[in-house]
Each structure stands twice: as C-alpha cells, then as structure tokens.
Amino acid sequence: SVLDTCKRLEKQGRSTTVLAVSGDGSIDLDILRGAVTERTAAVSVMAANNEIGVLAPLAEIAAIAHARGALLHTDAVQAAGKVPLNVAASGVDLASFTAHKLYGPKGVGALYVRRKSPRVTLAPMLDGGGHERGMRSGTLNVPGIVGFGAAAALAGRCMAVESARLRQLRDRLLEGLKTRVGDLVVNGSLTTRLPGNLNVSFPGVDGEALLVSLSDDVALSSGAACTAAEPSHVLKALGRRTELALASLRFGLGRWTTLQEVDAVAARVSDEVMRLRAMSPV
Hints:
alpha/beta; Aspartate Aminotransferase, domain 1
C-alpha cells in the first residue's frame, strides 16, 4: 500500500525515496537519518510488515522525521489490535487502520490525523456532502463503524493475554519445523515481530509444489494475500535468492488457533518438505 502510493506520487511529479532494510527486515535509522532532508514532506513506514511481521521503531523514526520538519505516516493495519500502539507517545502524525485485520467487519477503516503539535491539515479527496467535517464526503457506513469500534475494544482487552499465547504457539510451530525439517531459514527478526507471524523458507524445495501439496488441508500463503504467485519483494529486500524466496511459507496464527492445530501443521508441512526434497534432483 505504501509503495503503490509512492509510485502514484512519482507519476504526479513528486520525488520519492525507498530505503533498503537490513537482512532481518529492520530499518537502519542511520540510513533514514541521512535520507531525510529539509525538503522531505513526509516519511511513511509500516508499523508491522504484513509478510514477515517485523515491527518498526515508530518513536525513533518520528524523531528523525520531525527534526527535519517532515511528518510521519504509518500503515498500522497489521499492528493494530495485536501489539501496543500509542500514536501520541510515538509521535505519529498520520496512521491508517482497517477493521478486518482485528476481526472487525470488512469495508471500513480509519485514518488518525494529529490535531496539534503539529496540527496536520489535509485536503479532501472526495467532494459533495461535506461528511466527516468536509474531509470525506459520502454516507457513513454506521454498522461498519460500530463493528470496528467493538472489535477494537475487544482486541484491546484481550491483547496482553492473546499476544503471549500466540507468541508461545508461534515458537512451538517454529521449533516443530526445525526439529523435523532441520534446514530452514526464518525470514525477519524474531525479537521485534508480531506474535502471530512466522515466515519460513525451505531450501531445496519447489515453493509452488509445496503450496499446492498443502492447499487441501492447511490454510497458509507464500506471501502477501494481495499479490500474485511471484517472488516476494519483501523477501528479495532481505537478500533472499529468488529460488529461496519462492520456497517460503507465511504462517498466520490467530485468535482461534489451537495448540493441536499448530502441532498438526508442523507435522504436515514437515512431511511435505521432506517428501519434496527426496524427489528433488539437486
């Protein structure tokens, strides 16, 4: 979502800069500090990456942006409801959210806009009706908004307990895969990461064959749900070779994931990986 917006801005004559990340998906703050200038209008970063789950240090990024007079926008879609997120404390000026990522209804989202220190002013993209104080015209989706609020409240109440539970299940899944498969590569930092995310590459395995062989009884993906079956640009940014990026699976653990399901998936995926490796001519 951030990259596509940058591409549109470039078509409109704006200049954008996309920074590289480290091998574990983290942001190098020194590189960011060197890239932001007095001409920079805004810095935009995902609070949590949707493929590898790595969390961004929002407060540090905000400090760097504000020191040069730039605003900080964060795509907080993946982080909201899963990890603590305080826009005021972290210095975020704009933050995007969506309901369905925290078990709310689809088709409704929110944009946080800082009101003071500094006050952020935006121009409306839609005219007619003057809804939402003139910012976004159109009849409001009241049931969706109410559902979003209820889902957010529930996520907030459950966050601490649920995050700890998911982290334990994720670590159990990873250990189960390591024990059975042996040779695997974890994509992204395990220390600053969403608790329910695991992204793993399996060397020596055809990624498409692995995904197809699991599709009947395991719900997972090889990358972002909104992209085609091609090497993930996220994994390529980590320095992964094309064949290794293609041999990757993203596991998403959620509110209804059980220990029994985690153990079953670890065994099922491991069996397929070993079967495909045995068939490989390499």
